Amino acid sequence: MDTKKWLVILLTNVVVFLLLSTTVHSCLPSDRAALLEFRAKLNEPYIGVFNTWKGLDCCKGWYGVSCDPNTRRVAGITLRGESEDPLFQKAKRSGLMTGSISPSICKLTRLSGIIIADWKGISGVIPSCIENLPFLRHLDLVGNKFSGVIPANIGKLLRLKVLNLADNHLYGVIPPSITRLVSLSHLDLRNNNISGVIPRDIGRLKMVSRVLLSGNKISGQIPESLTRIYRLADLELSMNRLTGPIPASFGKMSVLATLNLDGNLISGMIPGSLLASSISNLNLSGNLITGSIPNTFGPRSYFTVLDLANNRLQGPIPASITAASFIGHLDVSHNHLCGKIPMGSPFDHLDATSFAYNACLCGKPLGNCKK
């Protein structure tokens, strides 16, 4: 073989090798096409997060896009409108993005994370096809203007660990299928227009540590099954339309630290177990709670916040409250309480507003009791 032919064969092999290498180490052309369809439905004029979405390899240098190093499939989209990234520091402002989420995002079948958060202006519906992304673990669309309903079959996302749809304009009910998300650890649907009831079998979410549903139009009673989620640390149901009693079993939960039920239509009495439990942030204000404050405080009672204001409580402030280890903020105002305010360390730093607008409370920091 002469030298010329040998060089041609060698160069051909080198070109083929380079082409194969580029193909293997670039993202899938269909993934790239889906990303460009996704981008086409969005407008972000101030930060320039899409300026890097150029070239054949969407796994290299495309802002907010991450890929599986082995398969080179797109595995994550992370676009936050509030960020310390140099792009945002250079722009000296937070992001504002408008448009909608294209269903083309569902063509990225290996996605494990979708974070499109705090852009303030993205609207439209959450594509229902998202429920067909079997590897999805993290869905965060907080702080936008999404409307419509939560996809009915979202319970198909069996690997989902984080579901954050807070601060949008979603309506409709909490889909019953949500209780099939057995891997879920964080559920945040705050500040939407969600109505209907909390699914009765929400206690099936054994891995969840935070259930945040405040600021909606949720009605019905608090499901007893919530008290059987042994990992639950934060439960926020404030500013809804919940009725009925507070399940006494909340006081027996070993890791529950925050229980916010303020601004509802909850009735009945305060379960005594709540005041000698692991709960350190307890807000029951703005309800229809009756009866007396249980005389069940003890050394285990440690409250950064204890807010019982704006209810229909009667009787005295119980003497056992002085046995509490700590009470940072106490508010029992706007009730029908009567009697002398106990003396002791929990009350030394409190002012009169904590006790105002009651029937006949007296003593420091209010006026002296009549003899």
UniProtKB/TrEMBL annotation:
A Pfam family cross-referenced in the UniProt record is LRR_8
Query: Which residue range or ranges hold the Leucine-rich repeat-containing N-terminal plant-type domain?
Result: 29-68
Q: Which residues form a coiled coil?
A: none
Q: Name one GO biological process term.
A: detection of stimulus
Signal peptide limits:
1-26
Q: How does it sit in the membrane?
A: Single-pass type I membrane protein
Principal location class: membrane
**GO cellular-component term (any):** plasma membrane
Location in or out of the cell: Cell membrane
The record, for PANTHER family, names: DNA DAMAGE-REPAIR/TOLERATION PROTEIN DRT100 (PTHR48060), LEUCINE-RICH REPEAT (LRR) FAMILY PROTEIN (PTHR48060:SF1)
* Family label: Belongs to the RLP family.
Q: What is this protein called?
A: Leucine-rich repeat-containing N-terminal plant-type domain-containing protein
Could you tell me which species this protein originates from?
A: Arabidopsis thaliana (Mouse-ear cress)
